[in-house]
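Input/output pair, single chain:
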Amino acid sequence: MNPFSDAKNVFLEKVDSMEYIDLDINIAARNKLEQLIQKVPFQIVLLTGQPGVGKSYLIQQLAKNISTESLHIQLFPFLSLNGFLAQLHLKFLPHIEINKNMTRDEFFKSFSTNLPKNELAPTIVIDEVQLYGDRELEVIRMLSDCRVFRFILVTHTLSNKEVLNESYFTSRIWDKVVISQLDVKNLRLFITQKLAKAGLDSVSFLLKNNNYKFMHKQTKGNLRLLTRMCFLLFDICEYYYDIEPTLFSKGVMPNKYLEMAAIELGSLDAR
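Output:
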């Protein structure tokens, strides 16, 4: 049986809450978000970080400790404003009938009239907010002003969305939570824990400190690139293990396989 076949599948680009790994860089961020949701009557909170640091990976864990009755996570861009408003209405006011011709103002009126007037309004998490236009962001601002919902907006660091920088918008932002890139310690933790959860400690034992440093250099601590590099590395190992399994008998990962993975990733020149 080829252990690298299973190791490769561990790093398929998918998000599974059962495979979530708590890292130092996101424990603090997640705890802060949970505290804000549970205790603070904010209007808007920003969650930011460079592309690929694991923002989407983190926000999906909020539902583990926050009641889904008071939390909605919008992972994928909504196609229309009315569709988004209808989705919120169906979730938080399922007992009140809506029709397909309801206007934005009618949705707003229904929210204001029928949602409980609690200090801690339901929280709406919107991922990739930099993909939305001014009209969508304006509706978010208006809903936050009505105090019927609170919003956590997830966006790339240094996003050029002008409306987020306008004073009438930023004045409603209570706090900003930033996720940093992985350092070598957290990079190693991510890989070893992912493999351990799959019962593949024998594979992680092949990787040494110099290997983790090399992977950190090639991925610059980017979680998305790291996941891709691990998949490529174990795909290469799977092939060579079938041909000559004794290559791994010394208990070390051949450097050439890491270099091949980095070349395939595009971070290392093949020359």
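The two ends are 34 Å apart (CA to CA). The CA atoms of residues 44 and 213 lie 38 Å apart.
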